[in-house]
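Supplementary Methods. Inverse-folding protocol.

Structures were first reduced to a discrete structure-token string of length 98. This string, shown here, constituted the complete conditioning input.
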């Protein structure tokens, strides 16, 4: 379970693991409980996914839920994790919060 919380988000380049779940009631909850440290969650208007950020051991992790089983939904979730505008939004948020 997450033991500490960090209000500021890190720059997108500092996250090196993306974890996509399907079921928000179970898998997403379990994944978030694995975090040793939580960072700010990120919701970009116009995107259907919320991204939860944190740390497991020495690894900065982004967790999201596609909400449905299937390759298309997981791929869309992953592509949005790596989109340049999402990363730029994340970097602006990190700069503003510091």
């Amino acid at each position: 379970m997450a033991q500490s919380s960090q209000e500021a988000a890190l720059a997108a380049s500092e996250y090196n693991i993306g974890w996509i779940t399907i079921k928000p009631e179970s898998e997403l909850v379990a994944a978030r409980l694995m975090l040793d440290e939580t960072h700010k969650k990120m919701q970009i208007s116009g995107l259907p996914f919320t991204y939860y950020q944190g740390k497991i051991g020495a690894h900065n992790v982004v967790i999201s839920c596609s909400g449905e089983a299937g390759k298309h939904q997981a791929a869309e979730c992953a592509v949005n994790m790596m989109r340049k505008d999402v990363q730029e939004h994340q970097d602006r948020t990190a700069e503003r919060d510091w």
